[in-house]
């Protein structure tokens, strides 16, 4: 992949004008499509297959009058005055009759009508005009809502005497998030961080420009897709948050690498190509992990959450595409103006290195104490998460003063919180000879259930086949006691069936919300297992290690739990809620945990790869595990700090003025990013690596052979470019190695600092009695083991980057275990293998095989190409009479020192 990205970076640099104009045209096209096609978002949460949703869908067919959205006009009189006066009765009755004739209105119930119950409060100060629509909230015409608001104002003026009139309800919920000037603070902070990082306005402004273009394309496209798909209002806002955060960070990675390379003297075009190949590979990996995690939201099986994940993933894909194409083009436009000034660059580099080295020395001086302190602190921070309750938002979390919130509060105050979240029980009465009596009997039974405040409506539909019973709970929609009431009503379904021979179901917006929250809660464990397992596999591919992925995954889980705890502490328990303008303390929005887990997974893997890959790179070249931590940390920490600070600022900017839906999500992501970057990656990770030492970089051979190599930092290309003409431009060596080293599971060296040059058609014999290093070296040279240090080229291919190419052109034959090893050698020659590796070659030295093996070893060509032989044995002397007379090199392994001698 890094080779492809190298070519892509060079192409984007040369065609920079075309690339820039193309992205502008894409942005214009997306905005035009949004203007022409967008139908608006839809915040009606549904959960297909659940009892509540199935019953609600059934009602749309048999009783459409009660299946649409609703509204309320609440009339409240001052203290000492009754709402039930002749003047009020007459005015409210006229208004109810007029509204009942409006388009899309199924009914408007006069609270003083003899057929309406519980529409006047027990204290006599409030009355509700209940309005039922024939359509869902997203299909309601704006002019109808405007007329109702006007009617409410006219009623208030006509009643006078300090009477308040509130127009609200589900139809007036203002769940659609919108941007405010506060979000711009995040961009300002990002600009400041970028200026401090780069010391250049051009370099600092470039990530902001590209991120804004990417977000514009993504969000406009998402809104355009509402013409064909149902998309919640949270989806585009999540895409804005993620698009800005990752878009800025991805550009930061590329520009930082480009400037570092230019400071070393590379010309502009070559530096751009290498930056895209190296840092661009990390961008691909980071974006891929975020996208996979967001697509994993579909495991919950809830359509609106799946759509949300797809929308956010699309925003990340666009950010990656912008980073890999537009950023290189803009870097080419900037040219040498991005090249750091030598004196200033050296000064900043020394300053950053001094602090980074000081910090890493502090956290690794007593690594076990560091580890225990962090785990204990994060565990304490996670304690409030044990009280986490999930619920979907209702009008009670709307901003104070909005119509929906004012009506919600007035109803809760005068009628009780349950009136804001009524339940509906449906009953199949088609077989009954007295549907009205049956529905009334059911209503009487339900009134006696604990938690039921009243049953204001019980009636069959006009066809007489379905009855509905409206239930007002004693508690609010998000109260756990309301959830318990739903469970109680469902437990009664068998009782109702036995007693009345009718099938019942519990539904309504409140019941649907409870079912959605329950299913989301149940999806957390499988989703957590998915992302944790995914991180183990991906990081094992990148770092060729067992302990590094385990450490990274445990750190990610600690970050998630800490973010859960902090969110519960503020939004559920109320500590500090006023500081960030939380409108109502209570249950956490039900899809927050799964979104947090998905997004934070991708970001955590991003920081892990960027930091640990630098540490691994230094270890691979020098073999000193302790020094690798210090040098790798010093090289990578500045970019991780800048990226995490920007990410934190962007998320935090959505908190103060964010909507009730976005605010807790932004808060949890800000806390999660801060903890994961600064506490886990920049503190815990060095401490754990210091504890593990060389063991951190070991991967069992069986797993190593089965896992593909994923070069997430593009280091492979850097190594290829460095080794392009090594050992010489016209080399005729089948195997070239320099400083080749590898360790066993305990960190004990198997072989060390081996320099090896095997010519085409040569023979290499590796001997060692009773030691495992010889087979480990054989497996390394044949591309079966990739966890080694040093430089290695086999058949002109750099390892471990091209293990697949090497494995396809060499043959590895285990002579001690494989039946018919000599037949396998003949087959390898027939297949034109470039190198034939024989493990335990002395296992076939029985009399009948010696002559045959001698002849095969003498055959050092396959067609017109030379064939190289590499073999291991206990004692090379046993092979003396069958080895060719020329081109043979013997390596002997010293079991005590793990050194080879020629």
From TrEMBL:
Pfam families: MMPL. Residues 186-333 form the SSD domain. InterPro entries: MMPL_dom, Mycobact_MmpL, P-loop_NTPase, SSD. GO terms for cellular component: plasma membrane. It comes from the Bacteria. It is a multi-pass membrane protein. It is found in: Cell membrane. Coiled coil: none annotated. Keywords: Cell membrane, Membrane, Transmembrane, Transmembrane helix. The chain crosses the membrane at residues 184-204, 211-231, 237-255, 276-304, 310-333, 358-383, 523-542, 554-573, 585-612, 633-655, 667-692. This is Transporter. The lineage of its organism: Bacteria, Bacillati, Actinomycetota, Actinomycetes, Bifidobacteriales.
């Amino acid at each position: 992949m890094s080779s492809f990205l190298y070519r892509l970076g060079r192409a984007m640099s040369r065609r920079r004008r075309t690339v820039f104009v193309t992205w502008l045209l894409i942005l214009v096209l997306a905005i035009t499509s949004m203007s022409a096609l967008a139908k608006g978002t839809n915040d009606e949460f549904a959960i297909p297959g659940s009892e509540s949703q199935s019953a609600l869908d059934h009602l749309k067919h048999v009783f459409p009058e009660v299946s649409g959205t609703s509204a309320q006009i609440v009339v409240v009189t001052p203290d000492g005055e009754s709402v039930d006066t002749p003047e009020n009765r007459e005015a409210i009755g006229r208004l109810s009759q007029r509204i009942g004739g409006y388009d899309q209105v199924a009914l408007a119930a006069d609270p003083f009508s003899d057929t309406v119950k519980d529409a006047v409060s027990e204290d006599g100060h409030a009355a509700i005009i209940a309005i039922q629509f024939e359509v869902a909230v997203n299909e309601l015409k704006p002019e109808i809502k405007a007329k109702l608001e006007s009617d409410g104002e006219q009623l208030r003026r006509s009643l006078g005497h300090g009477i308040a009139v509130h127009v609200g309800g589900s139809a007036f919920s203002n769940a659609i998030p919108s941007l405010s000037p506060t979000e711009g603070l995040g961009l300002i902070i990002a600009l400041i961080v970028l200026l401090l990082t780069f010391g250049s306005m051009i370099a600092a402004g470039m990530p902001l420009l590209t991120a804004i273009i990417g977000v514009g394309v993504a969000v406009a496209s998402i809104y355009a897709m509402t013409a064909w798909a149902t998309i919640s209002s949270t989806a585009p806002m999540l895409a804005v948050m993620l698009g800005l955060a990752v878009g800025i960070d991805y550009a930061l990675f590329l520009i930082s690498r480009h400037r570092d390379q230019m400071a070393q003297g590379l010309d502009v075009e070559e530096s751009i190509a290498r930056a895209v190949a190296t840092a661009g590979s990390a961008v691909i990996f980071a974006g891929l992990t975020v996208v996979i995690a967001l697509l994993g939201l579909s495991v919950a099986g809830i359509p609106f959450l799946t759509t949300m994940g797809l929308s956010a993933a699309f925003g990340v894909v666009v950010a990656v595409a912008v980073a890999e194409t537009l950023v290189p083009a803009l870097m080419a436009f900037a040219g040498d103006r991005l090249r750091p000034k030598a004196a200033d660059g050296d000064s900043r580099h020394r300053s950053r290195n001094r602090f980074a080295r000081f910090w890493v020395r502090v956290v690794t001086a007593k690594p076990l104490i560091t580890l225990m302190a962090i785990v204990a602190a994060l565990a304490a921070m996670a304690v409030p998460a044990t009280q986490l309750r999930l619920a979907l938002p209702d009008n009670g979390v709307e901003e104070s003063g909005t119509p929906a919130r004012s009506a919600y509060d007035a109803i809760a105050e005068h009628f009780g919180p349950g009136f804001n979240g009524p339940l509906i029980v449906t009953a199949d009465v088609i077989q009954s000879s007295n549907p009205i009596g049956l529905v009334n009997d059911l209503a009487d039974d339900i009134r006696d259930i604990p938690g039921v405040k009243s049953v204001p409506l019980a009636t069959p539909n006009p066809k007489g086949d379905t009855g509905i019973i409206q239930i007002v709970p004693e508690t609010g929609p998000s109260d756990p006691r309301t959830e318990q009431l739903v469970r109680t009503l469902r437990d009664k379904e068998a009782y109702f069936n036995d007693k009345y021979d009718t099938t019942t179901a519990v539904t309504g917006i409140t019941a649907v919300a409870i079912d959605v929250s329950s299913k989301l809660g149940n999806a957390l464990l499988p989703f957590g297992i998915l992302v944790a397992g995914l991180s183990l596999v991906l990081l094992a591919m990148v770092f060729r290690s067992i302990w590094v992925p385990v450490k990274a995954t445990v750190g990610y889980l600690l970050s998630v739990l800490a973010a859960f705890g902090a969110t519960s502490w503020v939004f559920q328990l109320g500590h500090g809620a006023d500081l960030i303008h939380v409108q109502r303390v209570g249950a956490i929005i039900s899809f927050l945990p799964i979104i947090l887990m998905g997004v934070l997974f991708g970001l955590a893997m991003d920081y892990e790869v960027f930091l640990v890959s630098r540490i691994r790179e230094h270890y691979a070249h020098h073999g000193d595990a302790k020094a690798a931590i210090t040098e790798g940390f010093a090289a990578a920490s500045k970019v991780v700090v800048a990226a995490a600070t920007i990410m934190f600022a962007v998320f935090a900017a959505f908190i103060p003025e964010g909507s009730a839906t976005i605010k807790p999500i932004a808060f949890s992501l800000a806390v999660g990013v801060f903890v994961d970057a600064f506490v886990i990656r920049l503190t815990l990770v060095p401490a754990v690596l210091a504890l593990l030492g060389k063991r951190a970089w070991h991967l069992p051979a069986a797993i190593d052979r089965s896992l593909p190599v994923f070069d997430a930092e593009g280091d492979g290309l850097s190594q290829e470019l460095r080794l392009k003409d090594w050992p010489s431009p016209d080399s005729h060596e089948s195997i070239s190695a320099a400083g080749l080293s590898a360790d066993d599971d305990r960190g004990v060296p198997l072989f060390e600092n081996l320099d090896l040059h095997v010519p085409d058609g040569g023979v290499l014999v590796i001997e060692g009695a009773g030691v495992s290093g010889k087979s480990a070296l054989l497996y390394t040279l044949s591309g079966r083991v990739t966890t080694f240090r040093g430089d290695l080229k086999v058949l002109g291919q750099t390892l471990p980057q091209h293990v697949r190419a090497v494995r396809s052109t060499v043959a590895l034959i285990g002579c001690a275990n494989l039946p018919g090893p000599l037949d396998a050698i003949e087959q390898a020659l027939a297949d034109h293998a470039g190198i034939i590796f024989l493990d335990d070659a002395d296992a076939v030295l029985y009399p009948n095989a010696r002559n045959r093996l001698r002849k095969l070893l003498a055959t050092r060509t396959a067609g017109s190409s030379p064939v190289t032989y590499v073999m291991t044995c206990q004692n090379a002397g046993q092979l003396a009479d069958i080895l060719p007379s020329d081109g043979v090199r013997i390596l002997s392994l010293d079991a005590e020192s793990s050194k080879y001698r020629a």
